[in-house]
Write a structure and sequence with these properties.
- The chain folds into two domains: 37 residues, no CATH class; 80 residues, 3-Layer(aba) Sandwich (Rossmann fold), CATH 3.40.50.150.
- 26% of the residues lie in helices and 32% in strands.
- The chain has four helices and six strands; from the N terminus they run βααββαβββα.
- The chain has a four-stranded mixed sheet, with helices on one face. A two-stranded parallel sheet has the order 1-2.
- It is globular, with a radius of gyration of 15 Å.
Length: 125
């Protein structure tokens, strides 16, 4: 499942995936999907997921909590998060694991600099 908030980028992703016979087949069977939506909300329709990778920095732990709710027990979330307590916008990649009993553990991994995770409304303003 790929989520993009700009329809043109969703369409470009699908177009590029169709260039390979293997990924074109996965698109046609639904094994790979791409949708236009607010990625901060995840995609509950297909949850729960084994893994979730976020390719832009979340501002606030509410995004993390929402996405953790869409993980399977035994799943992992990989997400860059802006440090809200630091004025220069420092970001860290966090690995968030949900064990088989549903207990969540968070591990701060790497300092990074990603673009912010936004929605379409914010992007167009």
């Amino acid at each position: 499942m790929g989520i993009e908030h700009i329809a043109q980028l969703t369409n470009l992703s699908i177009s590029n995936l169709r260039k390979s016979p293997e990924t074109a087949e996965m698109l046609s069977t639904g094994r790979i999907q791409a949708v236009t939506a607010d990625g901060r909300l995840g995609w509950e329709a297909e949850a729960p997921y084994d893994a979730i990778h976020v390719g832009a920095a979340a501002e606030g732990w509410w995004v993390v909590e929402r996405l953790v709710g869409q993980l399977k027990n035994g799943g992992r979330l990989f997400i860059p998060v802006s440090d809200e307590d630091v004025q220069d916008g420092e970001q860290w990649v966090w690995e968030v694991d949900k064990d088989e009993q549903g207990e969540v553990k968070k591990r701060k991994c790497h300092g990074v600099m990603y673009v912010p995770l936004t929605d379409r409304r914010e992007f167009t303003q």
